[in-house]
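Field: sequence (string)
Field: structure_tokens (string)

Example rows 1 and 2, in order.
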Amino acid sequence: MTAHIESSGRLVNDQERSLALTCPHCQVLAHVTPLAIPSFNDLQLHRPQHVGAVFRCDACNEPLFLRFPVRLYGALRIELSTQFAQVERAPESFTSNYLP
């Protein structure tokens, strides 16, 4: 997956239609839609090492926050790494009946 933020502020993603994650809210493997992308001008001004974006789970409509490492700051686009981190993860389910 290659992703970048254009100077117009739009997130362009190779897998835009097929990006699916396990939602931490509904526990369903669902597609996600970008909702909030940081301003291109603010990113160029501050040049952070990571960029956060808010996506919407298409199954339950809850927000998901993803953090992308920045690969390159260009004049017309900011390239993001293919390896993103999901900030809020689904809770792990395990049996706790063996605990005192």
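Row 2 begins here:
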Amino acid sequence: MALDPPTPHEGFSDYIIFVDESGDHGLNGIDPDFPMFALSFCLIAKTSYAQQIVPAFQEFKFEMWGHDGAILHEHEIRKNKGPFGILRTNPVLREKFYERLNGLMADAPMFVIARLSTKLT
């Protein structure tokens, strides 16, 4: 007896969620110049992620580096480290990079939920 194939996402959520933190998450010695902590969630439909977001970011990476192996890590981007070192000496490319990255993020079909705390106790 053959079983019917499962329907897409059967038993799984139709959404994917990404969670990240930013700011001073230390419990000891909080930085008085940046005494805040943010916890953010991005909720994205799996179909939007697979059909729109991933291809858009792959295309962006192909345009920038000729491959899609670069990982868009905030610290490396901000400090122009690793594959982002090319942004340090080329202001035209840096402007193009940030403009394109900001556009991709603004156009991404997702819900962003964020919680900011300025009092860590």
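free_text_note (row 2): Strands lie at 15-23, 37-45, 111-117.
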